[in-house]
Amino acid sequence: MQIGKFSFGIGDRFAHQGEAQLQAFIMARQKGLDVTPVWNKSNREHTTVNSQPVETRKEADNAVRNLKWDGSWFVDADHINMGNVDRYIDSSDFFTIDVADYIGQKASEEDLNSFIENNSDFEGELIIPGIEGSFKVSKETLRLIGEKFLLAIREAAKIYRHIESAKGKNNFITEISMDEVSQSQSPLELFFILSAISAEGVPVQTIAPKFSGRFNKGVDYEGDADQFAEEFEQDLMVIDFAVKKFNLPGNLKLSVHSGSDKFSIYPVMGSLIRKHDKGIHVKTAGTTWLEEMTGMAMAEGSALDLAKRIYSEALKQFDELCKPYSTVIDINKDNLPSPEEVSSWDGTRFADALRHDPANPSYNSDLRQLIHVSYKIAAGMGNAYTDMLVRHKEIIARQVTDNIYYRHFTRIFDI
Questions:
Q1: Half-sphere exposure (Cβ direction) of 175: Cα atoms closer than 13 Å
Q2: Torsion angle of alpha carbons 116, 118, 123, 125, nearest 10°?
Q3: Could you tell me the pLDDT band of residue 318, with boundaries at 50, 70 and 90?
Q4: Is the dihedral of CA 124, 125, 127, 128 positive or negative?
Q5: High-pLDDT (> 70) share of the chain, %
Q6: Three-class HEC string of 144-188
Q7: Strands (E), 178-331
Q8: Residue closest to 349 by CA, chosen among 329, 364, 332, 330
């Protein structure tokens, strides 16, 4: 089982927008671009809305069948670990193994010595084709990298083998994620991380490193775009070299997490994957939920009233809602409008504040981030929320499709 050259992770908190999401991929195909849809939903999201992984599978199945999609597609067990992987075994065929919590924990001395010995041929001057200059590698360099990452890779391998024992070899896609940490991985670190993955026999097809800058949920990239471009291109070169050196899967590619809405770096990503003829996986960060809220605002009436109620409750529960996402949001409370102000808005004004359109003077990135983490409130409303999704399916679907196609595909892939 192999993932396509280009793939796109699409989250859907409430499992109602599968067809609207898939329609964007159909539109891309009509323009000659083949992108593989990957429905993803994390364990945290399932827990928050009290859903089960099988519901994500059913949503994807129904969308594929109803729209007669004949391309490849997958369902991702997003950011899983050994403690929760079993609930995803039956319904998933893509597993994002998250080992961020193990980074920095030291492996055994025996394992470290084996890692150093296995990579001793690279000691001295390491030249990676496509990267200017060279890297100095010593036993101490290898030890420091091993102490930081080796235990995490061994944990990923343990989880991989657990999945393989249940699903069989080559029956699922493996991604390893190490993006939810404070420090980015250097190109040299990534090279030896891939060496360790190969040594463990894990057929990783996508890898999600941590890049510099902030990848906040649902808003644009914050950081030095030139520095990101340099890191991104170097990582592409590292992967290309590592595939050859370590006999890793030939389709191994970078995965960019919280990759939705990073408009300022999409041209960089797009130009570099075209320059080097490389693939990419981009994982969105639950922005379908934001498009549902935008659509409900535009529907006016009781749907707009419900959207306003969710925002008002979000302000009351600000600390509780934001705490789990503290590393991936950056909200200035002073920029949040009061419930009284929002209550006077019509649907267009609410949608303009929420929709990610920096050119619109009414756009409010702080409001957008707060609503992004407020899906728990909608989940608590039960049928009152989901019935509204059904009632206003058409207008909501248009927001979902347009968001994926026009604000993401056209900017990344230049179609």
A1: 34
A2: -130
A3: very high
A4: positive
A5: 100
A6: HHHHHHHHHHHHHHHHHHHHHHHHCCCCCEEEEECCCCCCCCCHH
A7: 206-208, 253-256, 280-283
A8: 364
pLDDT interval class at 285 (50, 70, 90): confident
Q: What was the pLDDT predicted at 180?
A: 78
Give the SS3 label for residue 256. Answer: strand
Those residues whose C-beta lies under 8 Å from the C-beta of residue 280, and which sit 6 or more positions away, are: 6, 7, 253, 254, 255, 256, 269, 273, 412
CATH for 6-286+407-413 is: 3.20.20
Alpha-carbon distance of 115 to 337, in angstroms, equals 54
Please say whether the dihedral angle defined by the alpha carbons of residues 252, 257, 263 and 268, taken in this order, is positive or negative. Answer: negative
How would you classify residue 301: left for phi > 0, otherwise alpha for psi between -120 and 50, otherwise beta? left
Domain ranges (residues) in the chain: 6-286+407-413, 287-400
Q: Residue 217 in contact with residue 329, Cβ under 8 Å?
A: yes
pLDDT score of 286:
78
pLDDT at 188: 97
* 196: nearest Cα among 136, 249, 252, 152: 152
- Rounded to an integer, the average pLDDT of 336-359 is 98
| CA 41 – CA 95 distance, rounded (Å) | 11
Report CA 304 to chain centroid distance, whole Å.
Answer: 29
pTM here is 0.96
Q: Where are the alpha helices (DSSP H) in 168-265?
A: 187-199, 225-246
305 contacts 385 by C-beta, under 8 angstroms: no
Under the banding of pLDDT at 50, 70 and 90, the label for residue 181 is: confident
Rounded to whole angstroms, how far apart are CA atoms 286 and 297? 18
Look up residue 1 and give its two tokens. 């089982």
- What's the CA gap between 406 and 261, in Å, rounded? 11
Residue 96, exposed/middle/buried by CB under 10 A (0-12, 13-18, 19+)? buried
State whether residue 214 is helix, strand or coil: strand
Q: Residue 177 pLDDT > 80, yes or no?
A: yes
